[in-house]
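One-letter codes give the sequence; each number marks local geometry. A record appears below:


***
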Amino acid sequence: MFRPLAVNIGFRYARSRHNFLSFVSVMALAGLALSVGVLLYVQAVVHGFERELEERLLGVVPHFTLFGRTPLEDADTVRERMLRVPGVRSAAPVVVAAGLVASDDRIVGVELKGVLPDLYEPIIGGFVDGGTLADLQAGAFRVLLGHGAMEQLGVAPGDAVTAVLPNGGVTPFGVFPRRKTLAVAGRVRTGSQLDDRAAYLHAGDARRLLRLDGAFHGVEARIDEVLRAREVGELARRVAGPEHLVLSTWFRTHGPLYRTIQVTKGMMFLIFSLLVAVAAFNLVSSLVMIVNERRSDVAILRTMGGRSGLIVVAFVVLGVAISALGVALGLLLGLGLGALTEDGYAWIEGVAGIELMGEYFVHHLPVEFALADVVRVAVTALGLGALATLFPAWRASRVQPAEVLRHE
């Protein structure tokens, strides 16, 4: 296959077996590969957190909720009107209350949520084990607890716990909180911080505990585009009845977390791109050394009629070839690190004996490679590598043949 002379020269230098030149090229290549691999891996971890936020937290947390200023007696009507709004995928009336759940001498704070099992099954049904939402039958006073709450209480499905609610009654001895024994029907395991405080009851049981008769506190909704929660929620509020409804969206509770992840992703890309820039500087020094070693070759080419452009292109091709190979190896390294992390993180936690991600909103290290991130990392690294070749190539084109060859 025909290739321009400058390209042939560049590839020939890249394949050089000269010990010193080969060592210099390998070191430059290794530095670039390591920096690209680390940059890609960090982007994959942050993208994994984005995925977990969308699939786990926003898969369970309502995208927006219309709360009544007073308990809603017309929750079914509100729900029907909300479902007419474009973009609303589902809606379900709920009863919500803060409370405590106790077992023996252990106690945890939870968010008690009364739900209708048939409407809530598509939302948390996939996260329930040891039982089903169908087990929450009106009058049975059964509860589905989050995995974290069950671990703290030391209970399992089938055990009994005591729910303590603040809406107590007045007795001759004062006001006492309301208490009710509940049977643990199953475990909710989302793998996120929600598991530490989740408690689901049948809506009928929750209304009896809170003395709401047939009313609900609000209607939760899930939409097709979660970032439009404010816009769709406000439209739903106007359609459903603005005079007695208050809008609350996931931005209020988890918006700062979402914005933090977005900012972190950009900052991490910028910071770790500096590693690629350092590797590019290393490539500059390596190419300068190669130019010094090839001064006689360059002088001969110039005496044979080679123009400055030919010399520049030849050394640019050499630098780009080293950069491309380094970027390819770096991408493979990053993908390998991601695969090892997914498979080995649980093993590392077991060996260390500690929960490394216990303080984060997910309790494992998520890794997901997005094609856009891979392309962005590759283009950035190749661009920096190409820029790094310009100065050495220009320096090679300034070699004076007479000064070099008179010492040969």
